[in-house]
Amino acid sequence: MNLDRMSDQKLKTQILILVSKEKALTIQVLKHLREIEDRRLFADDGYSSMFSYCTEHLGYSRYEAHGRIQAMRLMKSSKKIEKAIDQEKLSLSNAAQAQTFIRQEEKEQERKFTALEKENVVQDILEKSNRDAQKTLDCKKTTPKAETLKITLGARTIKRLKEFKALAGDYSDEEIIDLLLADKLKEKKTRNTKPITISNTRYIPQKVKDAVTKRSDNQCEFQAKSGKRCDEKRNLEYDHIRPFSLGGRSDIQNIRYLCKTHNLRAAIETFGREKMRPYLN
Q1: Last residue of a domain, one of 193, 208, 225
Q2: One domain for residues 85 and 96
Q3: What confidence tens digit (pLDDT) does each residue in 146-198 have?
Q4: 38, 60, 100, 131: which could join 64 in a potential S-S bond, CB 3.0 to 4.6 Å?
Q5: Quick count: other Cβ atoms within 10 Å of Cβ 41?
Q6: Neighbours of 216 (CB within 10 A)
Q7: Of the candidates 129, 159, 193, which is a domain's last residue?
């Protein structure tokens, strides 16, 4: 199509058609992403998160991926919110802002928002500009301002933090610190806990765990058909290849080291999505 030879009127008509198609596709993209996340299908291609799937596999920028994922997760909670996005009363960027706000408030208040509470948040930012929506959400914050703590870090520590942040995807600085502290406390509690002898055959012997950890090189062992191996190295779990409930043994050949995503995806494939639904959110 040679646009420089197109008449002014046709050019203006064409852009209206294209924008209309683009907006119609947006809601379909969100619905597809919702279903892909619900089934954890991104795990099949070797990804441990929706964020890495959207940026590396689908080719979105970090900003585009974050906005679509946040809007999609907000849309999950309510048909009314989905309709507002579909009718273009709630823009993609405002939906993402609302989801970020809700997530932060839930964390501070240590509870989950109901669908109605989420709808009330969205109602106040319908058909508003991005800036006005942010102002509205800022006014709705009920949590106190975070305290400031000044610490001095060495060059080596700063370098390691930057490397960790690069691996962490869409986590905020505060969430990264929380993760690191949680892992350290868990490690300390584990060291201070007396070993418990378990007679149940589901129990995985320490020597098996050690061998599997060494084999995996402390990285998720899932490998996609394309050959891509999952690069997740945090919060790994020992998993029975043949489930224990189906007669699987706790030996080196039947135990693998997986990230939470690939462990859950394997369970969905074995037991079905409906049975695993309580663990999907």
Answers
A1: 193
A2: yes
A3: 567 777 878 888 877 777 766 656 666 676 777 677 666 666 655 555 544 44
A4: 60
A5: 16
A6: 17
A7: 193
Q: Is the confidence at residue 137, as pLDDT, over 60? A: yes
Residue indicated by tokens 């809601």: 27
Judgement on whether residues 177 and 233 belong to the same structural domain of the protein? no
Same-domain check for residues 176 and 202? no
Which candidate, 51, 266, 220, places its Cα nearest to that of 276? Answer: 266
Which structural domain range is residue 182 located in?
146-193
Inter-helix orientation angle 79-86/115-123, to 10° = 30
Spatial CA neighbour of 47 closest among 170, 218, 167, 222: 222
Residue 140's nearest CA partner among 121, 126, 122 is 121
> For the chain, what is the domain count?
3
